């Protein structure tokens, strides 16, 4: 045993090295262990994005790893990302398949986020970008977002009134609630969080929202090492996933039934109301004209995708941006002056003002550059191809390391420093012109369809709270900006706590809101 095992290992390493060379696979990490491959690097999953970035410094912008028996390609430079997301966009437009989460909680890979690149996806994607998240719908529903942000202001005012000292606020939960309320209102016309009032339905909703990312982040090791299945190791997680899915499905089905009933009841409602349709109404109208395609299941899957993909990401961006502002009072000051100059202090900032606030945009871009909510973009190859001259087999999982690309010293001056000014030269709304050096929303065919909505929600919320309140940290100590990854979603390790008080110059406007 003591003689043969090391001998076995040596032979294994040599043959796997030679295999790699002969097959023209990209460089890989040493050692590749039998059975588990490189899964040992997952021991610090919270910093997986940093681990991959470190490895790319050793191995270069294209390398591959073995997750058990699955090859995983990791892309870490703008030019290789461009090859993947532009030149070979159609080949890399799939998402990884064969994961338990996809089968159980994503309706067997039929939802927009998880579906392979096929006619079904194209159809879903088209109605999402045109009907659901298109500029017209977003504008028609803008009053909902305006209203929710006003309610946030009102809530901050009340908390301030109640307390003799400036109260300490948990900004993570405040931002999450305003985002979820906004999203749910746009999707189904209902709010879920009221001050202190928690209904049973809201509780169920909350549970659904927190459990989904948590459970889908358990990348089941047995998805990668089928051999482990015989130990029944993943049974419990699988069971929890199925239970979660049953609850989510019931919740969504209920919303559909309520909506159908409501539509029936006001059949003769005026057609001029049409423009204000919520997203679920749009989908149910489509169902009427094409019932065999827009089955309830497709609608439920799409709504869940929007909620899950849109909430944590947008709320997290608000939280991180405010944290940076608290640590950089000079930036906060400049953002406030921009608001005073461009909007004034006689009225609340609104969505049409956002285009006139380039500095605010740079702050959000810089936030998304340093701490992108999705630091690793997951794709899969639909046929054999090459990247950077190396061979990529069919069905290979691909991770595009946005984190590494957005902190690459070859592209960015002082990459780890928060400097919104670096973006002021290009004042445009969309970060597209930054090409493949900025990938916070992805790129190519599967780029984030909610980008426009995210800019509006994050922009309006931040602008409003900066305009109305003076913000400070809870202590002298800087806000802790350390991050952790859960599944493929990045957030700050500790929720942001902060204090605020109404700006004296805004009292007139604020007293109008109170009434
Ligand atoms: C700051 C906020 C957000 C960030 C940073 C973000 C980021 C991303 C990223 C990196 C992707 C993967 C793109 C790719 O594969 O190239 C993505 C996909 C997606 N996002 Fe967002 N997102 C945000 C907000 C939203 C919102 C508000 C919605 C919708 C309400 C949304 C819906 C989606 C959907 C449905 C997909 C999957 C698209 C597909 O596979 O075809 N996202 N997002
Ligand atoms: C899931 O989808 C695959 C491929 O489309 C199909 O073969 C399989 O039967 C489906 N499973 C269930 C449970 O519907
Ligand atoms: C924003 O406010 C300006 C000035 O009061 C107004 O002209 C504009 O229509 C408003 N836009 C929205 C979307 O409310």
The DSSP helix count reads: 18
The tally of domains stands at 1
Order of strands, widest sheet: 1-2-7-4
Any guess at the CATH architecture?
Orthogonal Bundle
Looking at CATH, the homologous superfamily is Cytochrome P450
Rg, rounded, reads: 24 Å
The bound ligands are: protoporphyrin IX containing FE, 2-acetamido-2-deoxy-beta-D-glucopyranose
Q: Quote the distance from N terminus to C terminus.
A: 81 Å
What do the pLDDT scores average to? 91
The main sheet comes to: 4 strands, mixed
Structural class: alpha+beta
Strand content: 5-15%
Say how many strands there are: 11
What form results from the Cα inertia axes?
globular
Q: Please estimate the helix content.
A: 40-55%
Give the CATH class.
Mainly Alpha
Order of helices and strands: HHEEHHHHHEHHHHHHHHEEEEHHEEEEH
Low-pLDDT regions: 427-431
Q: What is the fold-level CATH name, i.e. the topology?
A: Cytochrome p450
Strand and helix map with partners:
Layout: H1 4-23, H2 48-59, E1 62-67, E2 70-75, H3 78-87, H4 100-105, H5 119-132, H6 135-140, H7 142-162, E3 168-170, H8 171-188, H9 200-217, H10 221-224, H11 235-265, H12 279-289, H13 296-327, H14 329-342, H15 358-370, E4 376-380, E5 385-387, E6 390-392, E7 397-401, H16 402-406, H17 451-468, E8 469-473, E9 483-486, E10 489-492, E11 497-502, H18 507-514
Parallel strand pairs: 2-7
Antiparallel strand pairs: 1-2, 3-11, 4-7, 5-6, 8-11, 9-10
Helix pairs in contact: 7-8, 7-17, 8-13, 9-11, 11-13, 13-15, 13-17
One 2-acetamido-2-deoxy-beta-D-glucopyranose is lined by residues 142, 347, 350-352.
